[in-house]
Amino acid sequence: xxxxxxxxxxxxxxxxxxxxxxxxxxxxxxxxxxxxxxxxxxxxxxxxxxxxxxxxxxxxxxxxxxxxxxxxxxxxxxxxxxxxxxxxxxxxxxxxxxxxxxxxxxxxxxxxxxxxxxxxxxxxxxxxxxxxxxxxxxxxxxxxxxxxxxxxxxxxxxxxxxxxxxxxxxxxxxxxxxxxxxxxxxxxxxxxxxxxxxxxxxxxxxxxxxxxxxxxxxxxxxxxxxxxxxxxxxxxxxxxxxxxxxxxxxxxxxxxxxxxxxxxxxxxxxxxxxxxxxxxxxxxxxxxxxxxxx
Length: 294
Ligand code: SPV
Ligand code: MG
Hints:
Layout: H1 2-16, E1 21-26, H2 29-38, E2 43-45, H3 47-54, H4 64-77, E3 82-85, H5 93-105, E4 110-114, H6 134-147, E5 154-159, H7 167-180, E6 185-188, H8 196-205, E7 211-213, H9 223-228, E8 233-236, H10 239-258, H11 271-277, H12 280-290
Parallel strand pairs: 1-2, 1-8, 2-3, 3-4, 4-5, 5-6, 6-7, 7-8
Bound molecules: sulfopyruvate and magnesium ion.
Magnesium ion (MG) binds next to helix 3.
């Protein structure tokens, strides 16, 4: 309970403060540890990345219990707060509230739910994306709020109106409805190659609630623009997972080509590095303390 209380309020502070905050993607304990050690102050447990690492497509192929288990590994490996990508909540209000409560029990600091139906599909897949009905989605938000026994637990409402091609008015209508339903912040998602529609939304929204963005496709926009627009939180949503693919592919290609690991040794993490990340020294110290000394 103390872990939950402290991380939920830490996430709340990150998301609600006037300073811009950055959440780094994590998909397992190791990627979470790397992000924490690098200096990130909060994590995004990405549905895309967790699914990918389990061999699933980001289309609710992974079960909600598999997501909860992955989140738990991330939480256990780190001290910083974890915002969980809750997809569309795995069903209606009832599935959403059950899932959110389990996430909270496993130490997540907050959940982000998006206004699509189950099963969802990754927002960058060039298919039709249909939105949930506004009132029904508000019920999901309210049910999460009512069911998680911690007022600090952060509930982010993610709007897919721009992804689904409905435009700014629809996005704003939804944002106001989700604020009324008890969301703590609004994640406005876009797959445009520039930040124009995100910035236009943020101007019209006037920060009624903090705005969270995911600049996966509009990656070249400078963070200074987000600071100027008073964006509260930027999520680097999948870059540990994508970095792992590139790094693993390069190493595999070279080992095949060179029939040796001599050439790559300098380019891969040392075992000492790994032992540090996973706190092997704590185990040695514990052995001194708990094992009979000879
Ligand atoms: C995720 O990381 O799974 C997200 C963000 O939902 S995105 O893939 O950019 O839609
Ligand atoms: Mg996702």
